[in-house]
Write a structure and sequence with these properties.
heterodimer; A: mainly alpha; 62% helix; elongated; B: mainly alpha; 5 helices
């Protein structure tokens, strides 16, 4: 009779331990996920993450990116320093500069101006909401 | 008598003065009436800025690690160190770091702005918008500075080529 009682007690303890293990696992997983998300947000990586919904690159951009990878240039750290090598360096550097300059006035004040956002006396941003959004996309967004 | 005139003038000025960056009644009602449209525009700005930041960051990284640094290493190895180019590289790296930091500050501000209830608190919304504009201006200045440093790099390398190695 005692043996049956002991067995029943053991089983009850086992079930309780399993519950504790389950709850503890959930708490630890929640905590570590919270910490990871806090780091992800506070480090600013979230603002560079374009895999977020609404921030995904368009198809065109993916194509451009592939082209860019094919055309990559590296100036060798070693080897002889020659005039021809420097001229090639300069040509490629100027291409990079051109690419940067194709972003006309990035982060310009106009995008957040009262006129652009429709925060003016008697403004009606509803009327041109769609247009305004498109305009913003093309102006601040991509290279021209 | 003079005191009375002065006090009257002061009271009148106080009554009519509008603090710098203050919001007018028309603007306040525009914010309240078109809150969602304004927020949609802000979200679009957020997205396009994020894209611009990623692309510009990539170009800056490439200019620093594939052009500036290797050239300076090569010049040192050839016993021809160029102080101007080294200084330019250091300034470029520092400004690039500042740009990344300032962009995060700006985006955090913009995120907070988008999360605000502009219908309930238009004044606070406008105040926050003004502060976000300032942060955006700082980012813009960083971009301008980086462009100047890149242009300087091109100029110095051209001079190096012209000097004949």
């Amino acid at each position: 009779m005692n043996k049956v009682k002991q067995k029943a007690q053991k089983m009850a303890r086992g079930g309780r331990n399993l519950t504790i293990l389950g709850v503890a696992s959930i708490i630890i997983a929640t905590m570590t996920t919270g910490v990871s998300l806090a780091i992800y947000h506070n480090s600013g990586d979230i603002y560079l993450d374009r895999s977020r919904p609404g921030f995904l690159p368009d198809e065109e951009e993916v194509g451009e990116e592939e082209e860019k990878i094919e055309e990559e240039y590296d100036y060798a750290k070693n080897g002889e320093l020659t005039k021809a090598g420097l001229e090639e360096y300069l040509r490629n550097l100027e291409n990079e500069v051109k690419a940067v300059e194709s972003y006309e006035n990035p982060f310009g004040a106009e995008m957040l101006s009262d006129e652009h956002l429709g925060i003016t006396d008697g403004a009606n941003p509803d009327g041109d909401e769609g247009e305004s959004a498109k305009e913003l996309e093309s102006e601040g967004g991509g290279a021209k | 008598m003079k005191k009375i005139v002065f006090c009257v003038c002061l009271a009148l000025c106080g009554g009519f003065a509008v603090p710098v960056g203050a919001i007018s009644e028309g603007q306040k009602s525009a914010i309240v009436d078109h809150c969602e449209a304004i927020k949609a525009d802000l979200r679009t700005v957020q997205r396009s800025d994020s894209r611009t930041r990623v692309y510009l960051g990539g170009y800056y990284e490439s200019i620093l690690t594939k052009y500036m640094m290797p050239l300076n290493v090569k010049l040192v190895e050839a016993n021809l160190p160029n102080v101007g180019l080294v200084e330019n590289q250091n300034s470029f790296a520092a400004t690039r770091g500042k740009f990344a930091e300032d962009f995060v500050n700006y985006q955090k501000g913009l995120e907070e702005l988008v999360a605000m209830n502009c219908k309930a608190e238009p004044e606070n919304f406008y105040e926050k918008l003004t502060s976000v504009r300032k942060k955006r201006k700082v980012v813009e200045q960083d971009v301008v500075k980086i462009r100047e440093l890149t242009a300087e790099q091109v100029k110095m390398v051209k001079k190096l080529v012209a000097e004949e190695l």
